[in-house]
Design goal:
Order of helices and strands: EHEEEEEEEHHHEEEHEHEHHH
Largest sheet: 6 strands, mixed
Distance between the termini: 105 Å
Helix content: 25-40%
Strand content: 25-35%
Number of helices: 9
Radius of gyration: 39 Å
Shape: elongated
Length: 308
């Protein structure tokens, strides 16, 4: 269904968009609302040199998603202007006009829509938020939401700590790994770092020179990072790896005195006896208890009585 520009719906929507963007037409489907808009700007500022230009080079259609309306997803198609930069010394010869307060450069979501989906991802998680947004007809993948969350996330000041625990963890098992740093006193995670080769861990240690104790696994990458950046810090193997080291050393020591395979001949003989008896019974065609019945029948024929 197509709604004319002067319809009540188009007039109602105009208050939600900048004045320099005029609604040309609205196309609706059972789930989506496609709004075609045209930019009426007369000039724009070059992002490189800051000079304002009035020379229009061409137009370009930008597509973006907006907040849902009346149980419909909203897709915008904006015919934007490209301008010549009149500064001969500028590196940008042609540039696209910007709507920084409404739609950022290269953005696929309006600022208000991006703010909403980011807040939803922070309150839940990226994959759950993606499923919720799908139900209200906003298309945003979990990776996109995670990227927005990281970009807009505020820096958190870490509490002072003297001891940390460091270990690797898997984004995707056998494919992508990272490094997790935990406070030894509160047992709360402090940082998640990319990779487990020790490079990012070195940079983190340089930013936290007050660390005195580092509990780690048997990874040589973490050990060398601590020795290089904080040579005076005490390195401690965690409880799991201490037990693992003890078990490995015990196995190595016992293997020199004990054979790899131990056989108990008497036990094997006892276990094999029932099998041999079963074979003999099978050859005789009888079952357990048959021999006793045969003796009783012979006594009965001879007139003897069975002992009581």
């Amino acid at each position: 269904m197509e709604v004319d520009t002067m319809s009540d719906l188009a007039r109602a929507l105009k208050v939600f968009y900048p004045k320099y963007l005029a609604i040309e037409s609205i196309h609706t489907t059972p789930r989506m609302m496609h709004v075609e808009m045209v930019s009426h700007t007369k000039s724009a500022v070059c992002p490189a040199c800051g000079r304002r230009s009035r020379r229009v080079h061409s137009t370009h259609v930008r597509n973006a998603q907006d907040l849902s309306l009346l149980d419909h997803g909203v897709e915008l198609s904006i015919e934007s202007n490209r301008y010549f930069c009149t500064n001969k010394g500028c590196s940008e010869k042609v540039f696209m006009e910007r709507y920084d307060r409404f739609l950022e450069r290269y953005a696929r979501f309006t600022n208000r829509c991006k703010d909403f989906i980011t807040r939803l991802a922070v309150a839940t998680d990226a994959e759950t938020a993606s499923k919720i947004l799908r139900s209200i007809h906003i298309k945003a993948s979990g990776d996109t939401l995670l990227r927005y969350t990281r970009k807009q996330g505020e820096a958190v000041e870490l509490p002072p700590t003297k001891g940390i625990g460091v270990d690797d963890w898997a984004y995707q098992k056998r494919h992508t790994y990272g490094t997790i740093i935990v406070d030894l006193e509160t047992h709360q995670p402090l940082e998640l770092l990319e990779g487990r080769d020790g490079k990012t861990f070195k940079e983190w240690l340089r930013q936290h020179p007050d660390i005195k104790i580092v509990a780690r696994d048997r990874s040589s990458a973490y050990a060398s990072a601590v020795e290089e950046v904080l040579p005076n810090a005490i390195q401690i193997a965690d409880r799991f790896h201490i037990s693992k080291n003890l078990l490995d050393a015990l196995k190595l020591s016992l293997s020199a005195y004990m054979p790899s395979n131990i056989r108990f001949e008497e036990l094997e003989a006892q276990l094999s006896e029932p099998a041999e008896e079963a074979v003999d019974l099978k050859k005789n065609g009888s079952r357990p208890g048959t021999s006793c019945q045969t003796r009783d029948e012979a006594r009965h024929r001879s007139g003897a009585t069975a002992p009581t």
